Amino acid sequence: MSRSPLTAAGRAAAPSVVAEREGGTMRVMEGASVPGSQAEDRADAGAENRAADRVVPEGLRDWRIVVAVRDYPHDAATIEWALAHTVRGVDTVHLVHAYSPLRLDGCHWQPVARARGARAMAGRRVVAIALQRIAAAYPALGQDGSAVAGTPEDVLEQMSEVADLVVVGDDSLEPATPRPITWRVQDAASCPVVCVPAGYRTEAGSPVTVVVDEQGWDPVLEFGVQVAMRSGAGLQVSRSWSALHEMLPETDEWLADQQRAFDTQLTEWQDRYPAVPISARIELDDAWPGRLRRSSSLLVATSYAAARVRSLPSDPVQQACPIAIVPDGG
User: Which of 54, 146, 209, 247 is deepest in the core (most CB within 10 A)?
Assistant: First the structure.
């Protein structure tokens, strides 16, 4: 592995999470853990909704964020991740619960009507409970939700056409899942999709890692920068050696030249977003996907590279970080 930082140590990173507008100036609020989540016991209760006098970095884009909810206990980490990367006054959040409809369209028999209504009511209840929990921790953060009839992959694929980001719990880590819903959503979505493992908790200081190939960097780098600005993390840009050459480098000097060329390619991004520390890595072995999932707060890749980054860390003690898949071409 070769690594090169593009910014000086100690450079101010972007402030995190929730912001509010005060007299035309955007200020940051440090969000609290969502009540009832697995991270709640570790949360500092005194930090809830505590104002921090820091300005949100210039260049932050507004996002329409869709959060998929199966039920609150199961998706507490997913909801918490989404809200921790939501900027109040800039982003909007919409919770979505997909429920299986009663496939008897056109039937007006009363028992069928009652069953159809019961399914819709159960879906709305799931959304209402999640919204109540969110409102308790983020009282000034506006959000709403919908219960939509349909399969989760169909509902989320269509929601991705109007959203800037879809956040969903990662069911690929669950046993006996032949083709995870999250993979199907990642492959078909029109916007980036973040899949959050159940119970995941971001470790402070972990970077957002973007995996790049020979071309098509802009969509994944732009998304990675936007996440890094919201979380206060640094951005780490990783390139696997196999994407460059089939054989290992012959000399350290030649590899150093490649690293310098890589740094040069990223200079424009560092100049464009000076508040985000950016570093570059060249991965020299085939174990890089698992290594990056252990050491990152988020692993970002294009649809083309999705199969590679879905690999799990070999060490079962180490939790896998969330994965974001950005559609090819943005």
Answer: 209
